[in-house]
Amino acid sequence: MMTTKSDTAPVVLTVGELNRLARTVIEKGMPSCWVGGEISNFSRAASGHWYFTLKDREAAVRCVMFKAANQFVDWAPREGEQVELRVQPTLYEPRGDYQALVDAMRKSGQGSLFEAFLKLKAKLAAERLFAQERKRPVPSYPKYIGIITSPQAAALRDVLTTLRARWPACTVILYPTLVQGDDAGRSIAQAILTAGDDGICETLLLVRGGGGIEDLWGFNEEVVARSMAACPIPIITGIGHETDFTIADFVADLRAPTPTGAAQLATPAITDLLQHLFHLRARLDQRHARQISYLFQIIDGLRRRLTHPKERIHARRQQVALMHWRLRDAYQSQARRRNQQFRELHMRIQPLRETLAMSWQLCAQLTTRLQSGFTSSSVARRERVARLSEQLVLLNPTSVLQRGYSIVMDTEGKVIRGTEQLAVGQSVAVTLGSGNFRGKVQEITPQ
Q1: Bridge partners of 99?
Q2: What is each CA distance from 75 to 8, 72, 210, 244, 404, in whole angstroms?
Q3: 285 CB contacts (<8 Å, ≥6 apart)?
Q4: Which SS3 state, helix, strand or coil, does residue 106 take?
Q5: How far is the CA of 83 from the CAs of 40, 55, 72, 95, 170, in angstroms?
Q6: Would you tell me the crossing angle of helices 154-166 and 259-266 to the nearest 10 degrees?
Q7: Which residues contact 426 (CB under 8 A, 6 or more apart)?
Q8: What is the pLDDT of residues 111-168, one digit of tens each?
Q9: Residue 370 to residue 388: CA distance in whole angstroms
Q10: How many whole angstroms separate alpha carbon 38 and alpha carbon 80?
Q11: Domains along the chain with CATH numbers
C-alpha cells in the first residue's frame, strides 16, 4: 500500500510494492514467447524443480522450470546444450531478481522439424495414407515375424525377449537398418521394401527406442511412409515412448507405444493359450465323462433287458405250459356249459315233440288242400293270361308296323304326332316293321 506524509509530499513505495509493480509491468508488457540459448548452471532441486541459466554471446537470464512442467520433457537437459524455451518473463519479488518462468522445453532446431512434420502429415493425410479402411488385420498366430531396426539397438533385445517369452513358436527374421542419422530414412524404406519382396514374414515390427524429434526423424520421412503403404505385409510400429508420434505410426496398420508393446501386439501370449487349452481340455473331459456315464446307463439298461437263451426258453416253456393249462381249463369249462345247455334244451324240446307231430299232421292236410287250390287257380290264371296275350298282340306297335305303318321321331327321340312339330330340312328317324332309317323333311302338307 502506498503511504504519503502530506498532500504535496512525493509517493514513497515499499520495496515489496516496487517489486510487485515491476513484476506486473513485466508480465503484462511481455507475453509468453520462445527463446533460444545455451543451458548453464543447471541444477535439480529436491522438490523436482529445475533451475538454470539460459545464455548466448550477448546476455544471460535466470530460468526456473517447475516440476509440473518439466515432467513432460522426455530427455535430460545437459550443461552447454542448445535449447529452445517457451518462457514468461517475470520478477521474483522477494529478491527482486529478473527471471524467466519456463513452461516448455525442446532441443534447438525442433521447431522447424515439427513444422516439417505437420506439413508432411497433412499431405499424406490428404492422400488417405492414414485412412482406417486401408489398415490390414494382423495375424493372430504368426509363424514368421520380421523386425526392422538396428542390430545394435536396445529395443531389439527387448523385442526378442518378449517374443521368446510370449510366442516361441515363431521364427524371427531381422532386416537391419539405420534408425538415426541423415541416411536413416532411406535405409528404413529399403529394409521395408526388402521384407515385402521376400514375402516370408506375416507381420513386420518397425521398432526403435526413445529419443528427441531429431533422433526419430528418420521415421518421419516421406520415403518411409510410402514404402510402408506399398508393403503387402501388415506393419506394427513401436517407436520411442508412448508420447512419441511419428509419420510411420500414422501409416502403420497398428501402433504400439513402445517396442515391447509392438511385440505384444504381434503375438498371442502362450500362457493365455495354454490356459485356454487347459480350459478346453477340462470341458472336453467333462463332456466325455458325461457321455461315457450316459452310455454306461444305456448299457446297464440293455444288460437288464438281455437274458440268457436258456432262461428265455425256460420262460417261454412256462408261458406255453400256463397257456396250455388255461386253454384246457377253458375248453373243459366250455364243454360243461355246452352240456348243461344241451340238457336244458332237451328238456324244453321234449314237451314240444307231441305238438310238433300234431303240427305235421295239420301241415299235411293243409298241403293237400293247398295243392288242390293251387291247381284249380293255376288253370284259371292260364286261361286269363292267354286272353290277355291275344289282346296284347293286337295292341303291340310292332304288329301295327308289320301292317305297313311307321313311327317318326326327331333327333331327340320324341315321337312326331303332327306336321306342326316338323320343319323343312329337319332330320328325322323313321322306324319300320323291320328296321329303321334317317331322313330329312323336304315338304310339309298340312292336314
Answers
A1: 62, 90
A2: 59, 9, 9, 12, 148
A3: none
A4: strand
A5: 11, 10, 15, 27, 45
A6: 30
A7: 410, 440, 441
A8: 667 778 888 999 999 999 999 999 999 998 999 999 999 999 888 999 999 999 888 8
A9: 26
A10: 6
A11: 15-110 (2.40.50.140), 135-271 (3.40.50.9100), 401-440 (no CATH)
